[in-house]
Amino acid sequence: MSLKGKIVFITGASSGIGAATALAFAAKGTRLLLAARRAGKLAQVASVALESGAAQVHSIDLDVRNHRAVQNAIDTLPPEWAEIDILVNNAGLSRGLDKLYMGNIEDWDEMIDTNVKGLLYVSRAVVPGMVVRGRGHVVNLGSTAGEITYPNGAVYCASKAAERAINDGLRQDLLGTPVRVTTIDPGMVETDFSLVRFRGDEERAAKVYKGITPLAPEDVADAIVWAVSRPAHVNIARVSLTSVHQANSLLFHRQP
Ligand code: NDP
Ligand code: 8X3
User: Fold this and answer.
1) Does residue 61 lie within any of the structural domains?
2) What is the pLDDT of residues 73-121, one digit of tens each?
3) Rounded distance from Cα 208 to ligand 1 centre (Å)
4) Burial class (CB in 10 A: 0-12, 13-18, 19+), 178
5) Owning domain of residue 144
6) pLDDT > 70: percent of the chain
7) For residue range 155-181, what is the model confidence (pLDDT) as tens digits?
8) Ligand 2 pocket check: which of 152, 242, 249, 252 to mutate, most ligand atoms within 8 Å of Cβ?
9) According to a count of CB atoms within 10 Å of the terminal CB, is the N or C end of the chain lower?
10) Which residues belong to the active site?
């Protein structure tokens, strides 16, 4: 399916997987609606996307945890940007790596508000238009963490298990419409993810990837573009991908 001229809305496009996905869609000649909180970083991604072939880019300063702001951002899109074809629900984060019974409640709130409620708010604002227009594709970012829970990560893993349920539920509820729903479930991807989890502790973040070659954000972007460019009657329900050094969220082969 040709993606040329399609409107692709990517949340969390200022960094990592979201930024790489913006550039992968740019190379297909799409029109990009990019959202995140850090406007400066978003502007940099927008500029590279235009150089990489995007037909047009429109950026939105958006915190997906704010329901009213999300609805308002969609309701007030310029008319030429309103007909979103592809939504990539990518904004997300982890905070902390703690035993559940010692966990920080603010960290829990931030993960659940972003990864679960933010995903719901954006989907609720965008999907009705897709149903009315009779076309659309929602891609949600899940994780191997949503398939198997790992120690000290229960709340992040739970947020991704929720994503899995929401993804499947949305696909069931859209049955009878042509709107497609896909979850992309990567294992470890080297982005700012661990730096954010450990609140800027670079040494601790680097240890996460020690001795393995993790996925690159471009590998995940490639899977997203593949899933959305299948023929219109094909719905890819789930793509699970890891580095060859990872079997699942618990099992790694680390080189000394
Ligand atoms: P990054 O930290 O590099 O990027 C996260 C993105 O999410 C940033 O653009 C950030 O933008 C945005 N974001 C975070 N909170 C909000 C918010 N409240 N409102 C709007 N945007 C927000 O991490 P990744 O690229 O790795 O993560 C992207 C997604 O991929 C997440 O959902 C993550 O759970 C998932 N994932 C990551 C894996 C990994 O190993 N890295 C593996 C599996 C899944 P800003 O701060 O500017 O708002
Ligand atoms: C991110 C992958 O294993 O670091 O979802 O939680 S992991």
Assistant:
1) yes
2) 999 999 999 999 999 999 999 999 999 999 999 999 999 999 999 999 9
3) 17
4) middle
5) 7-241
6) 100
7) 999 999 999 999 999 999 999 999 999
8) 249
9) C
10) 156
Q: Is 38 in the pocket of ligand 1 (CB under 6 A)?
A: yes
pLDDT at 216 > cutoff 90: yes
Indicate if the pLDDT at residue 1 is higher than 90.
no
Query: Using an 8 Å Cβ cutoff, are 7 and 86 in contact?
Result: yes
Q: Which atom from ligand 1 is nearest to the alpha carbon of 65?
A: 18
Asked if residue 217 lies in contact with residue 19, where contact means CB atoms within 8 angstroms, the answer is yes
pLDDT at 41 over 90: yes
Domain presence at residue 54:
yes
The residues near 40 (Cβ < 8 Å, ≥ 6 apart) are: none
Q: CATH code at 213? A: 3.40.50.720
Helix (H) or strand (E) holding 137: strand 137-141
Q: Is 242 in the pocket of ligand 1 (CB under 6 A)?
A: no
Asked if residue 1 is part of any domain, the answer here is no
Helix, strand, coil shares, percent, the chain, to 5: 45, 15, 40
Phi, psi of 100 (to 5 degrees): -55, -40
Q: How confident is the model at residue 232, as a pLDDT? A: 97
Q: How many domains in the chain?
A: 1
For residues 48 and 55, what is the distance between their CA atoms, to the nearest angstrom?
A: 12
Residue 250 lies in a domain: no
